[in-house]
Amino acid sequence: MMKDTVLIVDDSKIICSIIKDILVSPELHIETAHSGEECIKLSQIIHPTLILLDVIMNGMDGYETCRILKANEMTKDIPIIFITGNIDSDSVLKGFEVGAADYVSKPFIPEELKARVRVHMQNIKIQKELKVLMEELKVLATTDSLTRLYNRRYFMDRLFEYVGKDEEPFSLILFDIDDFKKVNDTYGHNAGDTVLITISNIFKLLLRQEDVISRWGGEEFMICLPGQSIEQAFTVAERLRNEIGNYTFVWDDITFRCTITGGVLQYDRELSTEKNITKTDKALYLGKTTGKNHCILAY
Questions:
Q1: Which residues, other chains included, contact 9 with Cβ-Cβ below 8 Å and sequence gap of 6+?
Q2: Domains of the chain by range and CATH?
Q3: Which of 17, 38, 104, 187 could form a disulfide with 191 if both were Cys (CB 3.0 to 4.6 A apart)?
Q4: Which residue in 31, 97, 219, 243 is the catalytic one?
Q5: What is the pTM of this model?
Q6: 7-21, 92-106, 139-153: lowest mean pLDDT where?
Q7: d(C-alpha 10, C-alpha 39), whole Å
Q8: Is 219 a catalytic residue?
């Protein structure tokens, strides 16, 4: 398990040693620095969990050190506890103004110092857990839970972004898995889920990073290709169709094939988004009713 790192900064090696002895713990890794300049350099290298910073030091003082740390993208989120003998309101206020999270007065009481460090460590842990949770919620809000592709709502948000970029064309591909109900009826819904996931992974593997891939609904997938004309998009669609048509799916030692049909459109900014999507859907429907397993251009 990775230990949290506390960086103690004081121009007195004796003070650093005393604080280190107070805080020493199996759960903590402790580093020391003896100037503001050393603190800034070391913080960018080890990125400590918490910094204990003396206010009055030779050369760069704690206030300036804190100000520089908070202005740096790499170190701005590291909590800083000031260690100071100046506990008058102006000094304390100045510390908070430059970004300090807390302060401990000299001469410090060991139990108070440990308690303040412990509280901030707990707060840091909670903040990290909240950040992870927010990222998970963001993923849930923008992706399909089964395929991990973007969901329809997120796709539409991105589509509106591209509509506003008048300088470049972009195209849409709407795919549908042919006879998907037969897959579910023959092999079961778990096999159907495997097909959806596998096709999604093939799309992600073959398409560019800037392409937006979504599960449009059921067994349909909508893809946005920024900067691509309809001819380029058709080439991409055919490549995807062929790759999936040649792929052998395996379920419970049974092998089978699936095909997809696609409608391809170069987005027309003279038309509404709804009409563009309807034209793509009509091209797909034409493909489905004229033999399946091919792509149709929408004009």
A1: 16, 32, 33, 34, 35, 36, 38, 39, 51, 52, 53, 54, 57, 62, 65
A2: 4-140 (3.40.50.2300), 152-298 (3.30.70.270)
A3: 187
A4: 219
A5: 0.65
A6: 92-106
A7: 9
A8: yes
